[in-house]
Structure formats: structure tokens, C-alpha cells
């Protein structure tokens, strides 16, 4: 397939994490510990490991059973334990295909991991991360997002959860199953809220400040963060947010979610009145059925987008149910309940090169301008010539392949990010900061001479400060996406320092980085993050004007 539009992309976010957690990104569940450390939690004492100045606690249960009669419902109460429970291995991820260097996926998957400089009762900022993978795969142990370097180098506490995904996390049963199942279409999101509640009740014991919590996430994790920003149940438990390469402007309407449920029951030959039979089907069989249903976008752009296709049944993601998620996260406005919470939002400059790499698409690199128009026409129709003309005028030296990457990348992640930033400004509350990540990897896309640039998901290892020289002084190894140039270490430090300073103060800042102004509708400042960072006013102004003129923004 030669093209990928925003709907197709968002509907296949699972492919993103599947590729990102390639073997070189896996890490083992038990590392060598300098010593073991113990901490009290609300449900019992746990033992973690301390290594090179960081205490790590893995696989901590934060809520109870979600299997059996608790399937599609809120978790059973978490049972306290006696003695000391080991927190030395990652907990089971949600039901999905097996994951490298992690336990086997399981229905009971409500575990979280904590990285902290010390359990010393200091009030450090807490960075609560939601993993990518759309809403169907991934885990709090996903590759590249080890929190050790953030904790060690920037004195923060990092928390990451496993939570329900896919059919088991987002099957909408509210209209069939009664009061016990209210919110069923958002169980995966409500699990994350339970993780935030656990942080509120316990993180002080790990050296964190329960009153200074930042939620953040990339790709599907960005969409999850968008939802949390609009969920009343989450509101008491976080103070600021960052939405990265995953702008969740709109989620699934409950009418469409009900159609998906009807489609599933029909495929399983279950009458709606007999929906309880779903409780007896093995989780592995439900995973197979999930893969047979149509794959569609788990979140959407503007409701009034010109020429937007109607929402189809199929696929699983958060549901605008009027309860857990009362309305679309950023449509028609930014959520009022987070009016006073600062926000970061942005995207990578070359998002689409990831998908060319993942799909083994080498033909785009051979495009001329005639071929560019043919490739874009199925998506943009009669607007295609205007789109190409605007981009050629804005970047007159760009080649046809470069324009293809630029157009595809901003359509995927840029338009939604700008939409969110503009709506947050119009709200007149806390500031919003818009960014582009722009460090360029020199690694070519296999089969082409075209460099990866700044692909989707490359920011994960950079913002976690996992692009650093080896601590033992040995020669650096090539980064999975980031390449070999030593400048990547500087870019990673900038990215991590900006984010951890935002977590600490609500305003992103870093040494050797210009002052980052809050976004506004006059100068529209955007921070470009690289080895050398710069603030660019009215970035992509010509291109965005065209997108607005054709109703895409």
C-alpha cells in the first residue's frame, strides 16, 4: 500500500509499538542490583533493587483482579499482603501477542513500575507516563522508555503502568449490561486513573510529590493523555500534561462503539441478551476475534473536517460515553476541568519516515512531482494541486519525496497538535507550549538513500535521556533510530531537561536553550528541539493556511 492517511495511521498504531520494541530495545526483567531496598505501600511492603544511584520497583500491583466476573468492569479491591513482596520483575502486560523480555501477557495486568533517585521523603516531581501502541498493544516496560536516566540525571520520579487494552479494555457494554458495567468502554483509561490514585496515595514513600504529577505519553500514549486531560475521575491526581505525537482531539462516539459491540456479538453468534457469554470466552480467543474485526481509527480529527469519512464500526479505543469520558477531549473546545493545568503538545518533523521503514515502502523516495500528485490524490482529491503548490512555494528547494514526507507527517500529527494548542490558548487558562522535535538521524531507510530524519517514535529514547554515552566509558553503539552522530547526546539532554523542568515548575526550560514562550495566536512560537534548539514564530504558516482553507484544520 503506497499511501497512509490519518485514519489509517491512527487505526494501525499497534504497528508502531510492535516495530519500536524490536530486539535491540528489549531489556531484561531482572538486572544486577547494587543492593535491595524496601518501601512501605498502602497494601504491604515491597522490595526493589538499587543500581547506580536509582531505585527501581517493578511489577507493583496497583489494583485488583479484572478477570472472571470482573471482566469489562472496575477491578476487584486489591488484597493486602503480609511480609515483603518482591518488586524485581515486570508485571504481566495486557492481553496481546507475546512481548520480548517481558512476562507472558495476562488478563490480570494491573501493575506499575517506579524509578526514583531515593525513597527519602523528598518531594520530587512525578512523571507518570502512558505507553504507546495505540490502544491495543504496549506496556509499562516498552523499549526505550526505561526511567533510570531521567531519575538519575534530573532528580524526578518516573511511573509507568500496564493497563487493559483492546477489546478487554474498551468494549462498550453500557447499553446491554446494566449499572455494574457503566464506563465499560473506558476500562483501560479508568485503569490508568487507578494508577494515578495509587501514585497519590503512595508516591511520597518513593521520594515523590503527590501534589506535583505530570502525565505524558507518546503516540497512543499521547491520545491517552488527551483523554486523561478531559476525564473528571483523573482531574484530582495530576497537575500538568504533555501530548506527544498523538493528539487525541476526538474519541469514539458511543453510537459507533455500540455498533462495534453488535458486530462482535454477531461474529461470535451471541444474541445481545446473552452478552454474559463473553465472560466465559478465553481471553486468547477474544484477542483472535479482535484481530478479525475491521481496524479503524481509535481517535479522530475535527468533527467538521471537510470530506471526512463517516466513523465506521470496529476497532477499540476510548468511548465518549457521557460518564468516564463526558465529551471529546478537545472538541469543540479544550476541557474546562483542566483549564488551569499547563500543557505541552507537539510532533516530530518526519513522522512518516517511520511508516515508510515499517512498511518497506521504498517507492516514495523515487517520486517526481507528477508521481507525488498521483500518490496524494486518493486522499486529498481536488485539493491535491493546491496542497502541492503551497508546499512548493513554502519550501522551493524541496524534492518531491521531501514534500511527500512533510505533507504526510504534518497531516498525521501536526494538524491535531496545532488544533489542541489553539484551543488551549482560546480557553484563557494555563499556558500551552508547542514544539517540533527535529534532530535528524542520518540512518537511511533500507532500500533507499533517504534518511530517517526525525521519525515517529524516535523521541522516546531521546526524552527519556536514553541517548547517552555508555557509563563505563566504552564506545557508543549506534542508536536504533537515532544513528551514530554524537550530537544526539546533546539533543537527548535538551529534550529530557525541558520535560523534567516542565514537570518540576510547569514551564519548560533548559541550559543552553532559548527561553520558550507560551503559545499565542499572534506570534505562534514553536520550540524546535535539536542539538541546537530555537524558537520559530509562525512556523509552517503558509502550509497551515492551506490546510485551513481546505477544512483540515
What's the CATH superfamily of the largest domain, by name?
Alpha/Beta hydrolase fold, catalytic domain
Number of helices: 16
Strand content: 15-25%
Whole-number radius of gyration? 22 Å
CATH architecture of the largest domain: 3-Layer(aba) Sandwich
Number of domains: 3
Distance between the terminal alpha carbons, to the nearest Å?
Answer: 26 Å
Supply the CATH class of the largest domain: Alpha Beta
- Give the biggest beta sheet: 13 strands, mixed
Structural class: alpha/beta
Low-confidence stretches: 1-30, 300-309
Give the % helix.
25-40%
Mean pLDDT: 92
Strand tally: 17
Spatial shape: globular
Q: If you consult CATH, what is the topology of the largest domain?
A: Rossmann fold
Short description:
The protein has helices at 6-11, 13-20, 148-154, 166-170, 174-177, 187-202, 220-228, 254-267, 283-292, 351-358, 369-380, 384-394, 400-427, 459-463, 487-505, 541-549, and strands at 35-41, 44-51, 54-61, 84-86, 111-116, 124-130, 157-161, 208-218, 240-244, 252-253, 319-320, 343-348, 432-437, 441-444, 451-453, 525-529, 534-537. The protein is of the alpha/beta class and 553 residues long.
Would you kindly provide a written description of the structure presented here, covering whatever features stand out?
This protein is α/β, with parallel strands linked by helices and 553 residues long. It has 3 domains: 6-252 and 324-338, Rossmann fold (3-Layer(aba) Sandwich); 253-320, no CATH class; 343-549, 3-Layer(aba) Sandwich (Rossmann fold), CATH 3.40.50.1820. The protein is built from 16 helices and 17 strands. The strands form 3 sheets. Strands 1, 2, 3, 4, 5, 6, 7, 8, 9, 12, 13, 16 and 17 form a 13-stranded mixed beta sheet that branches. Strands 10-11 form a two-stranded parallel sheet. The longest helix is centred in the last third of the chain and has 28 residues, at 400-427.
Amino acid at each position: 500500500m503506497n499511501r497512509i492517511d490519518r485514519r489509517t495511521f491512527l487505526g494501525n498504531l499497534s504497528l508502531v509499538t510492535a516495530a519500536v520494541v524490536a530486539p535491540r530495545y528489549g531489556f531484561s526483567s531482572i538486572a544486577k542490583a547494587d543492593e535491595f531496598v524496601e518501601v512501605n505501600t498502602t497494601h504491604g511492603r515491597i522490595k526493589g533493587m538499587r543500581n547506580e544511584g536509582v531505585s527501581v520497583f517493578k511489577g507493583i500491583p496497583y489494583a485488583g483482579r479484572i478477570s472472571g466476573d470482573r471482566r469489562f468492569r472496575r477491578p476487584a479491591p486489591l488484597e493486602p499482603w503480609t511480609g515483603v513482596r518482591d518488586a524485581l520483575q515486570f508485571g504481566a502486560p495486557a492481553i496481546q501477542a507475546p512481548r520480548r523480555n517481558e512476562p507472558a501477557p495476562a488478563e490480570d495486568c494491573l501493575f506499575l513500575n517506579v524509578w526514583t533517585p531515593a525513597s527519602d521523603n523528598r518531594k520530587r516531581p512525578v512523571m507518570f507516563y502512558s505507553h504507546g501502541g495505540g490502544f491495543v498493544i504496549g506496556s509499562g516496560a516498552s523499549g526505550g522508555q526505561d526511567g533510570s536516566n531521567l531519575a538519575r540525571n534530573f532528580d524526578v520520579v518516573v511511573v509507568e503502568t500496564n493497563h487493559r487494552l483492546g477489546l478487554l479494555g474498551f468494549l462498550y457494554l453500557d447499553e446491554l449490561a446494566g449499572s455494574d458495567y457503566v464506563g465499560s468502554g473506558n476500562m483501560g483509561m479508568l485503569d490508568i486513573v487507578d494508577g494515578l490514585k495509587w501514585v497519590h496515595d503512595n508516591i511520597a514513600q518513593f521520594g515523590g510529590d503527590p501534589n506535583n504529577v505530570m502525565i505524558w505519553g507518546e503516540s497512543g500514549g499521547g491520545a491517552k493523555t488527551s483523554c486523561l486531560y478531559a476525564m473528571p475521575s483523573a482531574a484530582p491526581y495530576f497537575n500538568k500534561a504533555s501530548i506527544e505525537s498523538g493528539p487525541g482531539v476526538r474519541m469514539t462516539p458511543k453510537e459507533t462503539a455500540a455498533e462495534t459491540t453488535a458486530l462482535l456479538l454477531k461474529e461470535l453468534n451471541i444474541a445481545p441478551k446473552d452478552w454474559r457469554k463473553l465472560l466465559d470466552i478465553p481471553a486468547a480467543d477474544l484477542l483472535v476475534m479482535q484481530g478479525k474485526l475491521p481496524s479503524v481509527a481509535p481517535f479522530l480529527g475535527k468533527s467538521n473536517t471537510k470530506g471526512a469519512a463517516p466513523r465506521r464500526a470496529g476497532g477499540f479505543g476510548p468511548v465518549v460515553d457521557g460518564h468516564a469520558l463526558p465529551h471529546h477531549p478537545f472538541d469543540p473546545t479544550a476541557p474546562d476541568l483542566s483549564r488551569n493545568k499547563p500543557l505541552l503538545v507537539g510532533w516530530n518533523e518526519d513522522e512518516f519516515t517511520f511508516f515508510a521503514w515499517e512498511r518497506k515502502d521504498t517507492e516514495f523516495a523515487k517520486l517526481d512531482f507528477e508521481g507525488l500528485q498521483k500518490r496524494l490524490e486518493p486522499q486529498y482529491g481536488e485539493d491535491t494541486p493546491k496542497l502541492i503548490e503551497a508546499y512548493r512555494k513554502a519550501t522551493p528547494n524541496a524534492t518531491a519525496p521531501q514534500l511527500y514526507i512533510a505533507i504526510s507527517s504534518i497531516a498525521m500529527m501536526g494538524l491535531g497538535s496545532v488544533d489542541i494548542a489553539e484551543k488551549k490558548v482560546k480557553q484563557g487558562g494555563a499556558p500551552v507550549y508547542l514544539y517540533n522535535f527535529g534532530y535528524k538521524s542520518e540512518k537511511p531507510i533500507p532500500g533507499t538513500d533517504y534518511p530517517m530524519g526525525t521519525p515517529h517514535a524516535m523521541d522516546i529514547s531521546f526524552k527519556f535521556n536514553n541517548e547517552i554515552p555508555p557509563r563505563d566509558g566504552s564506545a557508543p553503539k549506534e542508536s536504533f533510530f537515532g544513528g551514530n552522530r554524537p550530537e544526539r547526546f546533546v539533543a537527548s539532554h535538551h529534550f529530557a531537561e525541558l520535560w523534567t523542568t516542565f514537570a518540576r515548575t510547569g514551564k519548560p526550560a533548559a541550559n543552553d536553550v532559548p527561553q520558550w514562550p507560551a503559545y499565542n495566536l499572534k506570534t505562534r512560537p514553536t520550540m524546535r528541539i535539536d542539538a541546537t534548539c530555537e524558537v520559530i514564530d509562525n512556523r509552517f504558516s503558509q502550509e497551515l493556511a492551506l490546510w485551513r482553507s481546505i477544512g483540515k484544520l
